[in-house]
Q: What sequence folds into this?
């Protein structure tokens, strides 16, 4: 190979570009396919109406509402818990053996299959705590599932805040907590939001953890309390795809498109917020 | 403690308190410092006087920064740092059990090597300390911010952009902002850890001028690896080498008639 430097540069560039394309293609294909097929079904009626005829017709409104409630509740539980946990680990805990164990546990927790979370949620929240198959049990289970994500992302974000800022604050006579609250957390916010975005995507898409804890096959009304079961988009999708004979394909595509669009929309909002915060705070 | 207790809690007072001019402020007695098994300071004894600039010089790793950070207990933040000996501030042992470290750090302010303004507005940077210590009223805060910025010789340059991000200031302005931030909490002692090492000569000159003005009211301790800076601004100079205080005396004497040949070698630029 006696290529000139420019030629090598071009080859490398082309290779890297090809890799990017390979990664991008399936994603684009999937989104485009689902969007094209699903958009035909996903009209206003589909989004806003109850299912009819054993879910073979009508809309998917309760599943959308159920998924939104599940995701909302999950974030409400996991975000404060995860962020405070990460604050403890980075700002307070130091580097003892115990902290190492906790970190190890978190990493391992992230690797546990989601169906195990589902069974754990069933045993703990549904049965032991008597939540029943309910929104509450589902949120708690999903919160456990996304907690490692939130903690890891928050920890990274907190660690990325320059130590000089902490020292500057402490040297002015701030306590550790004042320093964390006024200097460290505000500057870690964009990174923490990234964790939250990942968590939303995960919580919205998972089926196994809510299978035993929250999701109902079919509920003809919206949940009246947190202890009611809910319908959820991923589970609904699974059901109309495999459990309901003769469900028309367009409502399957429609449900898939709504789920995808929902996650994309939530992510988009979070990304915009993050961008705004980042622009306001630079160091 | 009496002097500081009489002033408003946590904010700058009308005039700097403390003992009269040139009275010792810090008594450091036989101070040794260890990081794990490495010994960073070996039995350092020296007095820091009020309304003087004390410069600490020496090659990298000689212990001068460690010494500085012992004076406001910033070394506490380093795991397995350990000290022997005494540090007295106005007669009180700052390492005594029950010492309020937060209050100590308010009285003994610190400016770091790299300017570290918070990523917030100029105003909020200076108001950060007073707010921590409970100052609320807008007009009182504005007063403190203006006074502190004036004292740090920065007011005229930033008065039009108090509410712009501090990150937009130049390095030298940022460093003076950090000094203003310390003045705003009513510190009586200023510790500066190589404050000019990241600055250009003009910014450095401005900071040096500022320090000379500040010593009329404050006790200033500056660590520098720049010997010319030490000889330009300081009243007394300490030369550190390998964790030991080799020589300490009036700056002119240390630079012109050093008693120790190692000091002589260093100030003549033979090593370090």
A:
């Amino acid at each position: 190979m006696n290529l000139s430097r420019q030629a090598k540069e071009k080859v490398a560039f082309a290779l890297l570009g090809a890799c990017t394309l390979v990664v991008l293609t399936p994603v684009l294909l999937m989104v485009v396919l689902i969007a094209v097929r699903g958009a035909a079904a996903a009209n206003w009626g589909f989004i806003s109406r109850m299912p009819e005829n054993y879910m073979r017709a009508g809309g998917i409104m309760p599943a959308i509402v159920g998924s939104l409630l599940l995701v909302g509740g999950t974030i409400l539980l996991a975000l404060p818990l995860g962020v405070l946990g990460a604050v403890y680990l980075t700002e307070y805990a130091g580097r003892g053996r115990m902290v190492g164990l906790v970190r190890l546990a978190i990493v391992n927790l992230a690797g546990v299959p989601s169906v195990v979370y589902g069974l754990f949620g069933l045993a703990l929240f549904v049965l032991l705590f008597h939540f029943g198959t309910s929104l509450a049990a589902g949120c708690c289970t999903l919160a456990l599932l996304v907690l490692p994500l939130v903690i890891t992302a928050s920890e990274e974000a907190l660690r990325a805040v320059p130590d000089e800022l902490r020292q500057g604050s402490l040297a002015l006579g701030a306590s550790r907590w004042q320093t964390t609250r006024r200097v460290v957390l505000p500057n870690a916010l964009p990174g923490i939001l990234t964790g939250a975005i990942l968590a939303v995507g995960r919580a919205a898409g998972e089926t196994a953890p809510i299978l035993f804890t929250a999701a109902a096959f079919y509920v003809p009304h919206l949940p009246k309390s947190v202890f009611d079961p809910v319908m959820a988009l991923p589970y609904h999708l699974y059901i109309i795809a495999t459990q309901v004979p003769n469900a028309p394909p367009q409502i399957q595509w429609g449900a898939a498109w709504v789920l995808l669009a929902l996650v994309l929309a939530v992510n988009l909002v979070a990304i915009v917020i993050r961008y705004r915060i980042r622009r306001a705070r630079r160091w | 403690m009496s002097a500081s207790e009489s002033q408003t809690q946590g904010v700058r007072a009308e005039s700097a308190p403390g003992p009269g001019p040139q009275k010792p402020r810090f008594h450091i007695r036989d101070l040794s410092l260890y990081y794990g098994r490495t010994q960073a300071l070996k039995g350092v004894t020296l007095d820091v006087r009020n309304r003087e600039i004390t410069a600490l010089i020496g090659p990298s790793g000689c212990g001068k920064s460690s010494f500085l950070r012992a004076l406001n207990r910033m070394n506490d933040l380093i795991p397995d740092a350990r000290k022997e000996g005494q540090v007295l501030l106005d007669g009180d042992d700052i390492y005594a059990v029950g010492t309020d470290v937060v209050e100590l750090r308010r009285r003994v302010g610190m400016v770091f090597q790299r300017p570290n303004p918070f990523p917030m507005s100029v105003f909020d940077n200076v108001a950060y300390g007073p707010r921590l210590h409970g100052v609320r009223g807008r007009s009182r805060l504005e007063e403190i911010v203006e006074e502190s910025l004036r004292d740090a010789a920065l007011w005229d340059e930033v008065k039009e952009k108090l509410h712009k991000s501090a990150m937009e200031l130049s390095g030298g302005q940022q460093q003076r902002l950090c000094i203003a931030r310390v003045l705003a909490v009513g510190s009586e002692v200023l510790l500066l850890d190589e404050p000019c090492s990241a600055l250009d000569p003009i910014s450095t000159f401005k900071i040096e001028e500022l320090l000379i003005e500040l010593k009329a009211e404050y006790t200033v301790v500056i660590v520098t690896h720049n010997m010319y800076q030490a000889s330009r601004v300081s009243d007394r100079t300490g030369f550190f080498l390998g964790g030991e205080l080799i020589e300490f005396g009036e700056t002119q004497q240390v630079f012109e008639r050093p008693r120790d040949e190692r000091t002589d070698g260093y100030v003549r630029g033979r090593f370090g």
Notes: The mean pLDDT of chain A is 88. Chain A touches chain B at residues 94-95, 162, 164-165, 167-175, 178, 182-183, 187, 281-283 (CB under 8 Å). The two ends of chain A are 45 Å apart (CA to CA). Strands of chain A lie at 51-52, 57-58.
